[in-house]
Amino acid sequence: MERATVIVAIDGPSGTGKSSTSKAVAAQLGLSYLDTGAQYRAITWWMVNNGIDIEDPSAIAAVAGKPEIVSGTDPTGPTITVDGTDVAGPIRTQEVTSQVSAVSAVPEVRARITELQRSIASDAENGIVVEGRDIGTTVLPDADLKIFLTASPEARAARRSGELKGADVQSTREALLKRDAADSSRKTSPLAKADDAVEVDTSELTLQQVIECVVTLVEEKRAGK
Ligand SMILES: Nc1ncnc2c1ncn2[C@@H]1O[C@H](COP(=O)(O)OP(=O)(O)OP(=O)(O)O)[C@@H](O)[C@H]1O
Ligand SMILES: Nc1ccn([C@@H]2O[C@H](COP(=O)(O)O)[C@@H](O)[C@H]2O)c(=O)n1
């Protein structure tokens, strides 16, 4: 019998295609979509804007509960606001990207954002695709389907530098690997593949092939296969 709702967790390192894949799969299957990286970027943006010392975890922890972060979960137009301000653009700056791993490593930040993510997932009536780094391991350990996307550093750097219109591939590769190392080595819910996740190496696949692969896996789950 087909299930009414489905919770899909998609994790993996930077630039493996999590956002592009998750949005397309959610749109195709009529599910909600949550970009958890955008939430960590949003709280980082708030810290930077409010002059909080990013090198000082206790200073970050002390104010982690202050910003109100709201995520819109329509996969065809996801939104993110902080205290009512649209931050979809500002959270993608180099300044935020280079500081987000330090902020997201603070346990009080993770506790706050994890609670928000669980609440959004439980409110999604038709089900949801949630993408990030610790969704299958920590945020939604009972997800119906867990996917772990990977790709070679070369493929990821080439994709990202194409997106950043001519950014140097070598320095893009180094920045990706530095962020992955920080995200994988933090103590609290690091980037990791859940034991029961399906790993998909996207290095040699087109985005369309990855989307089709994940849609098939979701449909099989829904059909109870
Ligand atoms: N299989 C693929 N083949 C070619 N390009 C791809 C593929 N998957 C994603 N891309 C492209 O790679 C870039 C990065 O993809 P995306 O933002 O979805 O990755 P991500 O894993 O969400 O990254 P991050 O964790 O840094 O947010 C985008 O420009 C996207 O269009
Ligand atoms: N579940 C998650 C998701 C993200 N992070 C942190 O946010 C950074 C930005 O993520 P993007 O997907 O937008 O690149 C990421 O580098 C992590 O530091 C996280 O900790 N947990």
Automatic annotation (TrEMBL):
Keywords: ATP-binding, Cytoplasm, Kinase, Nucleotide-binding, Transferase. Belongs to the cytidylate kinase family. Type 1 subfamily. The lineage of its organism: Bacteria, Bacillati, Actinomycetota, Actinomycetes, Kitasatosporales. HAMAP family: Cytidyl_kinase_type1. The gene is cmk. InterPro entries: Cytidylate_kin, Cytidylate_kinase_dom, P-loop_NTPase. Gene3D superfamilies: P-loop containing nucleotide triphosphate hydrolases. Residues 8-219 form the Cytidylate kinase domain. This is Cytidylate kinase. It is an enzyme of class 2 (transferase). Its main location: cytoplasm. Residues 159-195 are annotated as: Disordered.
